[in-house]
Amino acid sequence: MAEDGWIAACGADDIDEEDVIRFDHGGRSFAIYRTEEDRYYATDGLCTHEQVHLADGLVMGTIIECPKHNGRFDFTTGAAKGAPVCVALRTYPVKVEDGQVYLRLGS
Q: pTM of the entire structure?
């Protein structure tokens, strides 16, 4: 991890518009999202309900739907938006520079 806490996660073009990919780093898993408006977001990668990876889920606008029980989160805020999930996801700052997506995992 860089001194400032930013780590290179993937190429900006590695994620299709309105989609999500998995990123693993330091023994943890993250989900990185790209909206139709070409904005990027990142959350913890596992659903807070049953620890299923969200990168296997469905993106609809700014909502990620878990592939196991169809719980939904707003990935821009991490807010739980549909049963059975009731615990929000942790979100992380994202920046795109020179075609590379970076996550800030430090405090």
A: 0.93
